[in-house]
Amino acid sequence: MRVLLTGGAGFIGSHLCRLLLEKGYSVSVLDALTYAGNKENLQGCDELGDFAFFEGRIQDRDRVSWIISDRNIEAIIDTAAETHNDRSLLSAGDFLDTNVQGVYTLLEATKDHRLKRFLHVSTDEVYGSTVDGEFTEESPLEPNTPYSASKAAGDLLCRAHFVSYKTRVIVTRGGNTYGEFQYPEKLISLSLVRLLQGKKIPVYGEGLQRREWIHARDHAAGILTAFEKGSDGEVYNVSDSNERENRWIVDRLLTRLDLSEDLIKRIPDPREGAHDFRYSMSSEKLRKLGWTPQIDFDQGLDATIDWYRDHREWWQPTIEDAGYQDFMQRFYGRALGDDL
Ligand code: NAD
Fold first, then answer.
1. Is residue 125 annotated as a catalytic residue, yes or no?
2. Given CB 3.0 to 4.6 Å as the disulfide criterion, which of 50, 147, 211, 322 pairs with 176?
3. Alpha carbon distances (Å) from 299 to 179, 246, 309
4. Known catalytic residue: 124?
């Protein structure tokens, strides 16, 4: 099948791109190469099969239409998004533009070109936070940040398109994802590149927030299972059962890198009211389609730590970028002070 993969130069998109090519799909990537997109993430893809890269935005209807016609696209998998909560708290315009308008544009293209499938990749964060229990696909959407609200809006547009036009839509909602090629702004990747520079890592409060972690390759395989075996109009949670407190994660990074706890800097939570305490989802529905996560969390995390340690050339240009330094200054400057 000939697939248009949006956001393929990002973290999860690049893992999914390799998986699709390995399974024999023809893959055309459309990516705007925002601060989070990196063509290096797709290195070697042209040797794996029929692969093409197009720079452009998913909101650009003409560009999307042209690629669909030129490459005889049969289906779209959408991983393109603005993805960082903390950035959305500083300014949400790009989030609405890409995560709402962009999704709508892709839905319209799916309808107009009568594509066989539109799979929209979303997040557990649309359900909001829970103290106990697990979210199912039936749980209400209660997003708490501009990021998660924009993702929920994209999910609802998918639902509306399915109901209104019978567009062949599937939504997946993934848990916190870790692994190689993640831009260094989220807990694991940010902490790793700071530790590897000998810098302190910011931990919000006592670090008691809990997240459920899934490796990017398992997340990609879950998306592909939903794409191949899921039913039109359905939502599938993609989660692994690795629930950990943030401070557990940080301790593990320090231990593996043989570094001291002195490198932890506890800071007041810059997310304030918007910091979800706990995410947890049931992925029984997807598991019934034959998917199970394959990567043991301890082993996957150790391999990720080793990868960042051994691939300084991948992340060093990022942290030298003026845009990255500006974000770090704006979000963490006051709390980290001289430790920034
Ligand atoms: P990422 O930030 O690493 O990559 C996003 C990619 O999308 C980048 O390559 C960027 O250049 C591209 N992009 C952004 N705006 C675009 C636009 N307007 N047009 C075309 N391309 C654009 O993101 P990620 O972490 O790989 O997340 C991928 C998807 O998975 C997102 O929908 C995200 O909400 C979802 N998700 C992520 C996680 C996680 O922990 N990372 C967890 C659950 C769900």
1. yes
2. 211
3. 11, 18, 15
4. yes
User: Would you list the domain boundaries of the chain?
Assistant: 2-178+213-238
Both tokens assigned to 326: 């500006």
Architecture of domain 2-178+213-238: 3-Layer(aba) Sandwich (3.40)
pTM, two decimal places: 0.98
Q: Closest Cα to residue 51, out of 80, 79, 81, 14? A: 14
- Tokens standing for 330? 């704006």
Per-residue pLDDT of 320-336, as tens digits, reads 999 999 999 999 998 89
* pLDDT in the model for residue 275: 74
What's the distance, Cα to Cα, between the start and end of the chain in Å? 47
Residue 150: which pLDDT band, with cuts at 50, 70 and 90? very high
* Structural contact between residues 84 and 91, judged by C-beta atoms closer than 8 angstroms: no
Cβ 80 under 6 angstroms from ligand 1: yes
**Tens-digit pLDDT profile for residues 60-118:** 999 999 999 999 999 999 999 999 999 999 999 999 999 999 999 999 999 999 999 99
Task: For residues 26 and 173, give the distance between their C-alpha atoms in angstroms, rounded to a whole number.
Answer: 24
Q: What's the CA angle centered on 104, arms 80 and 288, to 5 degrees?
A: 65
- Ligand 1 centre from 31 Cα, in Å? 10
